[in-house]
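Query form — protein ABC transporter permease

QUESTION: What is the three-dimensional structure of this chain?
INPUT:
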Amino acid sequence: MEIVVPVLLVAVIWIASLGSETFFLPSMPRIMEAFADAWLFDRVPTDIAPSLGRLALGFAIGVLLGAILGYLFGLSDALYRMYSPVVEFCRGLPAPAVLPVLMVVFGIGVQTQVALIVFGTIWPVLISVVGGVRSIDATNIDTARSLRLSRLDRFFSIIVPASAPQLFAGMKTSLSLGIILMVISEMVGSSDGIGYFVIQAQRQFDMPAMWAGIILLGMVGYVLNAVFDLIESRVLSWYHASKGRAS
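ANSWER: The structure tokens for ABC transporter permease are given below.
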């Protein structure tokens, strides 16, 4: 049923745009024709693959760093108090504002694009993990200590499972931010990628191609979020089952 509304919306836009003479809003048939010409499938290896590769690398690094720092800060009150002002300052910075600094440090290229994605994706994961760890019932930790479980056993048997839902919540937010930053970085300093294609089409006043690129970005975001939800449902099946039983 969830596909009904998108299909109806596309049908309405398709019919409403027929015969459109507005330069900036071409008809859907023209946009779909440009979509087929550009993305089926000549530009898959030259634009889609590089974009997804940079997104995957930056997202993976950002999640890894965010999770590691999140668990460190969540488990240590001293570390949390020491670095909390720095974390709050950095996560309050709009990631695109850091792009000029990254371009000076890394130059124009893949390193800058990946670094921007890392900078934007690390904070939601870090904050979510810290919140998840610090919300664990102290009784569970005390019980584990009374059973003489080692710190490593307590970490993997209690802390990680208890904070996993918050970790995935932060990852989902970071994924959306990563897609946005992927596009921004490609529009500013790249010679390939979906964002580069969109900005080049806009500069050349090729409106059907520009809208085709925007539609592709929406499709990429939808597919990636759907895949992430599938992975989350599998990994956290025990958590969703417990919520179902509780309700």
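ADDITIONAL NOTE: Residues 151-188 form the longest helix (38 residues).
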